[in-house]
Amino acid sequence: MHLSLTLSQSASLFCVAMLLCAHVSCDPMKLNACCTTTSSYPITTPITGCRLQRASHHCVKAVIFSSEGRYFCSYPRAPWVIAKVRELFKSGARCTF
């Protein structure tokens, strides 16, 4: 079997290989979207967990609450956010980074 590739086929194959390598070597959390804006409005559904997001590149500093399979980007200095993080901490649920 003789394999012969044109220059454009080789370039395409190289790009696919690089994308696969980047996908395999990256931390899965870095592949997900991040919060680019936050809200100060309280969440009315039960909050089951949270994650703290640091500001970097286009991502803003945020507390990401999870509730009923959804995620909410909340302003970290909003009084209700601070109270909810403390409440979660006291109940044994920790916010992850």
From TrEMBL:
One of its GO terms (biological process) is immune response. The keyword Isomerase does not apply. GO terms for molecular function: chemokine activity. SUPFAM superfamilies: Interleukin 8-like chemokines. Residues 33-87 form the Chemokine interleukin-8-like domain. Residues 1-26 form the signal peptide. The keyword ATP-binding does not apply. GO terms for cellular component: extracellular space. InterPro entries: Chemokine_IL8-like_dom, Interleukin_8-like_sf. It holds the Pfam family IL8. Keywords: Cytokine, Signal. This is Chemokine interleukin-8-like domain-containing protein.
